[in-house]
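Put briefly, the fold is written as integer tokens. The lines below illustrate.
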Amino acid sequence: MRTRQVPCAVTCAHGACAARSPQGVRSGRGPAEAVATFDNMLTTDQKGATAELKIAARAAQFGVGVWSPYTVERFDLIFDLRPRLIRVQCKWATRYGDVMIVRCQRHRRARAGFVSRLYSADEIDAFAAYCADVDECYFLPLSVFAGRTNIQLRLGPTKNNQAHGVNWAKDYEFAATLGPHGAVAQLGERLAGSQ
């Protein structure tokens, strides 16, 4: 470990003490032990902005028209699925092992303390989540995930081999939902055929 002289104008005439201060991270308790990753270096605002940009770019790659509201709204983006417009709330997904968690509520500080609220169908039509660890975007319709505080998407098999009731991440990737053969594209075709 390298050391450097610490300036100390109060105790030394020449401005530097003989005491030396370590340069680098020592092993011990506290935040210096944490491994820096993209996820834990960003503020929540930066994570939200990153997720919104990644989601918009990935949706555009699948031929989805992407719009942003000019006024303050509860949704972040509008997806033009032709003929339908979908209000999308963008979220940052965090990976814990083989599970990704998307937090589906909004928080604000109030006089009474921290206030949390769920999103309703009056405000949004779907969540779109970006996970930096796997660099993938997910489309999560509110009709499937209404009333949840968190959505868990599984990346790998469960330890007990359970398959029923599991939200597999691959089923909600943009390629599976917004692509030409995805569930949302098929819904748009059925709507166009019934009109």
Observations:
- DSSP finds five helices and eleven strands in the chain.
- Residues 7 and 13 are 11 Å apart (CA to CA).
- The helical segments are 38-41, 44-61, 142-145, 174-177, 183-194.
- Confidence is low (pLDDT under 50) at residues 1-12, 15-30, 186-195.
